Amino acid sequence: MTFETDQHQSGVSKPITMGATTACRKKAGPIEWIGLAVLALPTALLGLDVTLLYLALPALAEDLRPSSTQALWIMDAYGFMIAGFLITLGTLGDRIGRRRLLMIGATAFAAASVLAAFSPTANTLIAARAVLGVAGATLMPSTLALISNMFLQPSQRALAIGVWATMFALGMALGPLVGGILLSHFWWGSAFLVALPVVAIVLIAGPWLLPEYRAPGSGRFDLPSVALSLAAILPMIYFVKESAKTGLTPVAVLTLMSGVICGAIFVRRQRSLSSPLLDVRLFGNGTFSAALGILLFGLVGVGGAMLLVTQYLQLVLDLPPVIAGLWMGPPAFMMIVAGIGAPLLARKIRPAFVMAGSLALSAIGYLLLATLAWMPGLTPVTIGYALVYLGLGTIAALGTDLVVGATPPEKAGSASAMSETVQELGIALGVALFGSLTTLVYRNAIFERLSNDLPQDVFAAFADSLWAASTVATPVAQDLIFGAKASFVAGMSASAAVAAVGVVVLSILCAWSLRRVPKLK
């Protein structure tokens, strides 16, 4: 059975039992495609938020003077909180209404953006980013789940999801340019205020163009499951961050163990509930599980590349924000091409081989980034980053479609939440792991260049990070900055080489695990 929504004056969709063939053959009309444009706006906003913040980091660091740990938390807090709350809020949307949750989340996102824009300290900004993560956790699963309700035909759904994923790339493409212009005229906080007009459009147009949908017979909302899901995910995230920076300390290991125990209790509870927060039976579908794994590990490398390439352009090549933003445009354009082109190509070639081929190309991109220590410049970083984004666009579009398409409509919110959870977690893990690896190589290299005779503030800044070193304006610091740049590039190259190896393995696993998925029709 599948469900087709019937709109009534109440605005709430009632389930009508339909034959699977009838539901799947119903084509979306103009209203659905216009509604897709509205759903794409929050997605573009989240893309803007990613690249705006990366470009704002040097200016932010100069103003707020965060430590390297605080800087990573400024970058990671959003992704970690969204990963922690996506399952809860995606399932909540199934119960209270997906459009309603979208409206609530958009309003909260705007309020948190204002808080972030006017943060006086690094800790305040970290807290604001965490609130943004919770608000963002309402947006992504709501938009994706509504797409699954509006586009019932598989080929149309895949194309709609491709457009939806492409809007994230468009946001990232416009983010550096918009951010560069803003940073040239205003303070770094202005980057967060871009959310306000976007949210205003969604709040005005959403009730008119988007259908409401509540899953039939969804049951009560289980609060103990919410607590267990957070108690499982957040400690595991903390373990990854802390162990990457300080090694396997007793505190980090105990934190991981507590997360694993809570995760096991969470799974056991879900199996016993008639209306679980997360239907763990979904993982029995091989396509669903394999696609989630590819999204998770594919986004780890992308998260690291996002952080390192933007720093390379601004801190190593000394490009102003506007110019750095323009050079990030071609890679984002490649993601747009992949996001729209991959679903069309998958009508002729099985999705497994389309995704595996794009991952192989992205591995070449990581290898180009790994050569920056020997061949520095704009050309290798632009081409390499473009190939990375080509792979990102393909797996984001087809991988997400495989996850959503493998589940019934009444579970679309939960499936969408899982898809977004692994993608956000992958990006956050990439920032933490590759950021930490780059920092480790940087510090080992820079300590060979530093002297104990240096002023204490200069020594501490150079030992911390390249962005901290770039804020020191003394003559002694200017003599050392070339060595700091070389040390950073060495760390970046090492991280890119590790990512290349991982993506090659992922490409092979993708072709094998999804080989039986048919072409899109």
Task: Report on this structure.
This protein has helices spanning 20-25, 30-64, 68-96, 98-117, 122-150, 154-185, 195-209, 223-246, 250-272, 286-316, 321-327, 329-345, 351-370, 378-405, 412-446, 456-464, 466-469, 475-513, and strands spanning 2-6, 12-18, 212-213. By secondary structure, it is mostly helical. The chain has a 3-stranded mixed sheet with strand order 1-2-3. A hairpin with a 5-residue loop joins strand 1 and strand 2. Helix 6 (154-185) runs antiparallel to helix 12 (329-345) and helix 14 packs antiparallel against helix 15 (412-446). It is globular. The chain starts with a strand and ends in an 8-residue tail after the last helix.
Write the layout of secondary structure elements.
Blueprint: E1 2-6, E2 12-18, H1 20-25, H2 30-64, H3 68-96, H4 98-117, H5 122-150, H6 154-185, H7 195-209, E3 212-213, H8 223-246, H9 250-272, H10 286-316, H11 321-327, H12 329-345, H13 351-370, H14 378-405, H15 412-446, H16 456-464, H17 466-469, H18 475-513
Parallel strand pairs: 2-3
Antiparallel strand pairs: 1-2
Number of strands: 3
Structural class computed from helices and strand pairing: mainly alpha
SSE order: EEHHHHHHHEHHHHHHHHHHH
Oligomer: single chain
Overall pLDDT, averaged?
79
Helical percent range?
over 70%
Task: Please work out how many helical segments DSSP would assign.
Answer: 18
Distance between the termini: 19 Å
Radius of gyration: 23 Å
Shape: globular
Largest sheet: 3 strands, mixed
Strand content: under 5%
Low-confidence stretches: 1-24
Strand order of the largest sheet: 1-2-3
